Amino acid sequence: MESEIMNVLLVHAHPEPHSLNGSLAHFTVQHLQHSGHGVQVSDLYAMQWKATLDTGDDLAFRAGEHFDPSANSKRAYDTGMQSADITHEQEKLRWADAVILQFPLWWFSMPAILKGWIDRVYACGFAYGVGEHSDTHWGDRYGEGLLSGKRAMLVITAGGWASHYAPRGINGAMDDILFPIQHGILFYPGFDVLPPHVIYRTGKIDDAGFEQVRKELGQRLDTLGTTTPIAFRKQNAGDYNIPELTLRTDLAPGETGLGIHVRQDPA
Asked: For strand 240-241 and strand 246-247, is the pairing parallel, antiparallel, or unpaired?
């Protein structure tokens, strides 16, 4: 079953356009457009994206004023005084039905330029700091928020073998490595997060291997709208004690670790 027609934002972070990542980004755009989807691209290196969140992001900031990253971010967002590049990326996120973050896994995380995109575009009042706090509701986050109802997926390249990232692999399980991104960056502001698409042993991919990689990526793109999301537990749906935000003792009793925040009975 193929996905319904969607608006898709591809946020791509690799400095070399003729790299594997660059080729896959080009393939993704062509494949999605051929399937009828609307596509926008944020090629961060090509855009020369400014990665550092600073006083320049608040156009109303005055020299000598104390800079509070969250407070200034919220003021700029609320008053329409954000740097224009931030506002433009937020407009893309509002437009998108699905967002793909594509990047090489560098030092167990995303490239700094992509983290800087998150730091600046995820303004206070936009991606966090929204919703009311009460005895039963602790802000609109972890399954709620401005980006709820949208889908997100990571497309990642890694130099190591799949076994290196297996549950008993030396690098740690890939699901654990990606938890801060998938749960903390994507699920937090409301995205339905799809299982990641990871391409391993990138340095060993020959022409035949590249065709297989494209085929497998195409299959994931074709099911972007139908793939079942990761069953992360929603913060305000009753699974967590509020305001402590600890998982109820009757859920995953005696267990700890990142896995307890994923429902094992997603139905």
From this structure: antiparallel
Mind listing the pLDDT tens digit for each residue in 68-102? 999 999 999 999 999 999 999 999 999 999 999 99
CA 218 vs. chain centroid, Å, equals 19
Straight-line distance from the first to the last Cα atom of the chain, in angstroms, rounded to the nearest whole number: 20
List domains and CATH numbers for the chain: 7-230 (3.40.50.360)
* Cα atoms in the Cβ-side hemisphere of radius 13 Å centred on 245: 9
Position 119: which residue type?
A: D
* Contact between residue 147 and residue 127 where contact means Cβ atoms under 8 Å apart: yes
Q: How far is residue 85 from each of residues 51, 134, 150, 163, 202, measured CA to CA in Å? A: 11, 34, 22, 40, 32
Helix (H) or strand (E) holding 12: strand 7-12
What interhelical angle do 20-34 and 207-222 show, nearest 10? 40
pTM across the whole model: 0.93
Tell me which residue has tokens 């590249």.
Answer: 210
Backbone angles phi, psi at 189, to 5 degrees: -85, 5
